[in-house]
Each structure stands twice: as C-alpha cells, then as structure tokens.
Backbone:
C-alpha cells in the first residue's frame, strides 16, 4: 500500500508564519522568500500539489489530532476516562474528564490554534493556486476542492467545540484593519455552518470520486468524502432532507465484513474508508505525533502513557455478542490479535484498541509518530446518518441501514419500533459503532442527552455552559473586546 508523503515545504511555513499578525495563528518563521521567486519555483504541477499537501500535513501534528483533541472529543464523554496514573494530569486531561476546563486550559487552546493553523495553510493554497499558470488547470481545480474540503473539516471541528468563531476566509494582510477585525471577531454558529456548507459544495464540484485517483494520490479528499462530510454538517443542523440527499450521493463504498480489521494497518483504505488522516512511521517518519503512544497501555508490559481509557459505562453498554466490544477495547490480561500479551498488572483495566499499532519493534518502544491512519469518515456512519434522518423526518428507510450495521457486528435485527424506540436504537448504534472516533461527546450535546448521560457517568453537565468549550483566554485577550467568551467561563 502506498501512502501519501506530505512534507511541509519551507516556503509554505514561511508564508504561513507571516500571513497574520495575531499570535494565535502564528508559528515561528523558518525562511522568507519573495513571491516572485516562489512563483518561479512552484509554478508547476508538483509545486501546486505542495501547497495542498502542506494542509494535509497539519493533521499529523500533536496539537491537531492527538492529545488535546482526545481530551476535548473523548475524555469529556461517558465513553472515556482520563486514564493513566492518578497523579499524571496530562496537563489538563483531568479537567477534561471532570468537565472543569477553563479559558486557560491547554487542550482548548491547542485545538483552537491547531485548526486555525491548518486553515491558514488552506488559505495560502487558495491564494497561490490561481497564480500558478504553468500548472495543469484540471489539477488546480481538484486541488482547490481538496483545500476547501480540508478547510471545511477544520471549521466543522471548531464550530462543534466552540460555537461561533472567526471566519478567516483569505490570507490576512497585516496592515489591513479590516483583516485584523476578520481574524479577531467571532461570527455566529449559523454563519460558520453556512461557510462550511459553501466550501463543501465547491469541493463537491471540483473533486473526483475515489476511483478517479491514481495509487500515488490515494488518500486525498474525494467527492464521496465531501458528500459524507456535508451530510454530517446537515446532521448537526437537523436538516434531515439534506442528510438524506447527501448520503444518497456517497457511492462506491460498502461495509468491511470484519469490523475488527478496520483498525489494523492492513485495514487502511478499505472499501468502507471515506477519509483518513494518513500516517507513515518509516524513515523518515511522517506519522501522527503521539497518537498511539499517548493511548497505549501503561505500566507492566505496556507500550504507552495510558490516557483516554474506556469507561466501565461503555464496556457494560454493549449487547451480548457485539463483536465491536473486543475490537474497541484492550482488556488487561488479554492476548491481542497479533500475539501481544497484555499483563493484568497494567495501570488501567482497559485501553483504546482503535489507537493500537501492532506488536512491532517500533510500537513496543513507544513509537512517537503513529504508523497507521486515523479513520475520519466511514461508510458505516453514512448508513447511521441515513437511518437517523429517515427516522427524524418520518420518511425513508430506517430499519435497513440500522440492521446492516447490527448484522456486521454479529447482532440480530433490531426489535425497536416507533420513532422514539428507533431513535434510542440508532443512538446506541452510533455509540458502539463510532466509539473513540471523536463523535460521542458531540453526539450527546447535539441530541440533548449530555446532562443525563453525564449524570449516569458520575459527572455534572451544566446546561447553558458545557455545550461549548471555553474560547482560549489568549485569543480573548488579543481580541480586545471584538470577541466575547462563551457563557459560563468568565
């Protein structure tokens, strides 16, 4: 299997670091280069690609896809505990677990900053692609679609976490007061969603289907990925007809017969895969920083730090015979599918198997850059979105997609009936199918289950506050009155 190598070019880092005067978007400069020289060097197909591969590469960073993202999207929920040793807070992962984050918490700041750093790279690509007149026109159109898909994905994660945020839709000019205001002024949640939808509609028109890529470009955003993400955006807005329409356009995919194999390196880019964050742990390593090792078993026979561990609440919620339970959870004392023996003396009783990298020498030594991909969009979720939209709208097939998911998990057809009963069944299937895929917390919030689910897990969810995470104080201070904090965090 060939993976995309996604180096960050020096020129792209230089442009990115000088594109805005606001610290929350900045990274240290590496090299400056005149635009005329840039256009000379990068005015070809390879140069055009490099602007967009630099966007993909942001997803490999520690602050983007790893520790802090796990803190906000997973450890907050009833699916995961902080884990690790009691005295190891993981900077603020204990606060994620306890729902006591504040505006100075590192996890909120890193997720906020990382996504804007990626958005800045997308804006740089969108600025320079039209200027590369020696690059293939069709390629530039496709790359524009990729950049807009990736920018939409990052804004989707921001709006789910923080609500309304600044819409930075182009590379800011440091001397422009209007551009400074753009970067420091929060827009409404509705405006952010509208911006995401517009980017995805453009991406859909520009991107090929998965079959339209060569092996060398496997893993780049596709038309199917844009349709699937747009369906998910509509799901969060309660636009049921939009969900159904977009899901129907996700074609050429199917379920992988064996659920457990999805999470193995051999299961990358399978027939179910719609979009993945791609890691490569070779030499030189281009892996996802700290993703595996931060979640690996801790202590005797362990291979990691032990964070983001499954809760007893999650483990006890599976139906008898659900194959997804053992595919999702590493249990202390078990022998894993690749022969690794997990000591019963590890620090925690359970760990996240979806983050596990097989028993290789580099994995055993706590490989910092995870060698396998993170699954972002799968066809299974498309089926669950279809079922939910059909049930909530009162029209369409609810039972068929739901049973397809259950049968793959080794379960019989659902016995649920009626809209309320099927709603409960669909929510249970989302929990078990998508556990540790960064959706549970947001699902609880968007469906209004968070307060009761948190109470059942021993946590206190404050209605009117915990639906959103705090905007980083660093940004609020820089905004100097142009943006305000989310409710409850002042």
Residues:
């Amino acid at each position: 299997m060939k993976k995309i190598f996604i180096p960050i070019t020096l020129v792209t880092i230089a442009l990115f670091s000088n594109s805005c005067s606001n610290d929350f978007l900045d990274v240290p400069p590496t090299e400056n280069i005149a635009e005329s020289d840039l256009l000379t060097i990068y005015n070809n197909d390879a140069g055009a690609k490099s602007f967009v591969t630099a966007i993909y590469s942001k997803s490999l960073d520690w602050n983007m896809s790893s520790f802090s993202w796990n803190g906000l999207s997973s450890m907050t929920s009833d699916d995961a505990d902080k884990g690790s040793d009691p005295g190891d807070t993981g900077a603020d992962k204990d606060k994620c677990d306890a729902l006591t984050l504040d505006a100075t918490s590192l996890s909120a700041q890193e997720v906020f900053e990382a996504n804007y750093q990626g958005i800045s790279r997308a804006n740089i690509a969108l600025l320079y692609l039209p200027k590369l007149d020696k690059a293939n026109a069709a390629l530039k159109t496709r790359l524009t679609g990729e950049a807009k898909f990736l920018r939409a994905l990052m804004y989707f994660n921001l709006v789910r976490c923080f609500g309304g945020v600044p819409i930075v839709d182009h590379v800011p000019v440091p001397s422009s007061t209007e551009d400074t205001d753009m970067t420091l002024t929060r827009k409404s949640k509705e405006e952010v969603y509208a911006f995401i939808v517009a980017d995805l509609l453009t991406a859909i028109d520009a991107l090929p289907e998965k079959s339209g890529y060569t092996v060398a470009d496997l893993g780049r955003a596709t038309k199917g990925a844009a349709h699937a993400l747009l369906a998910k955006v509509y799901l969060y807005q309660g636009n049921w007809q939009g969900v159904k329409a977009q899901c129907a356009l996700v074609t050429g995919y199917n379920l992988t017969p064996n659920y457990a194999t999805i999470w193995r390196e051999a299961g990358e880019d399978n027939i179910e895969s719609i979009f993945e964050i791609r890691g490569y742990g070779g030499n030189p390593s281009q892996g996802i920083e700290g993703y595996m090792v931060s979640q690996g078993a801790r202590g005797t026979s362990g291979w990691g730090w032990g964070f983001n561990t499954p809760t007893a609440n999650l483990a006890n919620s599976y139906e008898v015979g659900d194959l997804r339970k053992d595919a999702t959870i590493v249990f202390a004392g078990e022998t894993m599918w690749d022969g690794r023996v997990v000591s019963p003396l590890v620090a925690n009783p359970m760990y996240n198997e979806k983050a596990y990298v097989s028993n290789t020498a580099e994995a055993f030594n706590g490989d910092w850059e995870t060698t396998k991909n993170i699954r972002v969009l799968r066809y299974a979720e498309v089926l669950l979105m279809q079922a939910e939209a059909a049930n909530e709208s009162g029209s369409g097939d609810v039972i068929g997609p739901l049973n397809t998911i259950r049968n793959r998990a080794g379960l019989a057809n659902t016995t649920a009936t009626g809209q309320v009963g099927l709603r409960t069944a669909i929510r249970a299937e989302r929990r078990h199918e998508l556990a540790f895929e960064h959706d549970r917390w947001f699902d609880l919030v968007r469906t209004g289950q968070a307060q009761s689910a948190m109470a059942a897990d021993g946590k206190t969810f404050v209605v009117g506050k915990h639906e959103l995470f705090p905007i980083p104080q660093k940004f609020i201070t820089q905004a100097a009155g142009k943006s305000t904090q989310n409710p409850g965090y002042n």
Q: What stands out?
A: The chain has 22 helices and eight strands. Confidence is low (pLDDT under 50) at residues 1-30, 361-365. Strands lie at 80-83, 273-277, 288-289, 307-310, 329-331, 350-352, 369-370, 374-378.
